[in-house]
Amino acid sequence: xxxxxxxYSVRRASASDLFEVLAVLQQNAPSPPLEGVxxxxxxxxxxxxxxxxILATPNLTVxxxxxxxxxVGTACLLVMPNLTYHCQPTxxxxxxxxxxxxxxxxxxxxxxxxxxDDARAAGCHKVQLLSHKRHADDGGHQLYRSVGFEAEAEGFxxxxxx
Length: 162
Ligand SMILES: CC(C)(COP(=O)(O)OP(=O)(O)OC[C@H]1O[C@@H](n2cnc3c(N)ncnc32)[C@H](O)[C@@H]1OP(=O)(O)O)[C@@H](O)C(=O)NCCC(=O)NCCS
What we know:
It is a single chain. By secondary structure, the protein is α+β, with helices and mostly antiparallel strands. It is 31% helix and 22% strand. It is built from six helices and five strands, in the order H-E-H-H-E-E-H-E-H-E-H. It has helices spanning 4-7, 18-25, 45-56, 84-87, 107-121, 140-146, and strands at 9-12, 60-67, 70-80, 90-98, 126-128. Strand 4 (90-98), helix 5 (107-121) and strand 5 (126-128) form a beta-alpha-beta unit. The longest helix has 15 residues, at 107-121. The radius of gyration is 16 Å and the shape is globular. The termini are far apart. Coenzyme A binds next to strand 4, helix 5 and helix 6.
């Protein structure tokens, strides 16, 4: 079997990738639904507007992992400027999802490797992410530990909408 970096590649998503990113994001569950994964992605006006906003936001990057021309993974990186830590920015990772059919082949690890390289190149002091406690047993926490993250902080959340 070829190493993952030969089968899979990671790049920054661009304006024309909204459909691909949404197609991966709709697979954001521990296992596929019994009725199978829908191939259709209806893009809403709100999603189009949000995508525009994302692309126009400095320091915010959406990544796309591909197998050939097929989108198989996505993740986001936000590099937040900081006055503390000698003005070194902090990196935040969000929305890490890999398509069901391509899991356990190193796609998430490849995306996180690229993100950590980019965060390092941006001069970040630390990289933070939150993963819900329900991911303790479905692979999420194991994934982050496997690339070096430690669960050394307590995560706090307050939901502002129902
Ligand atoms: C979690 C998720 C992103 C992993 O993606 P992936 O491409 O399958 O992960 P990788 O193949 O790169 O796995 C890297 C390592 O993470 C750990 N890991 C990943 N999935 C795992 C699972 N289901 N069970 C146990 N360990 C797992 C393993 O240590 C794995 O290394 P190994 O395969 O050599 O043992 C994917 O399952 C997913 O999209 N889940 C739904 C969304 C989600 O839960 N996101 C993250 C939580 S915030």
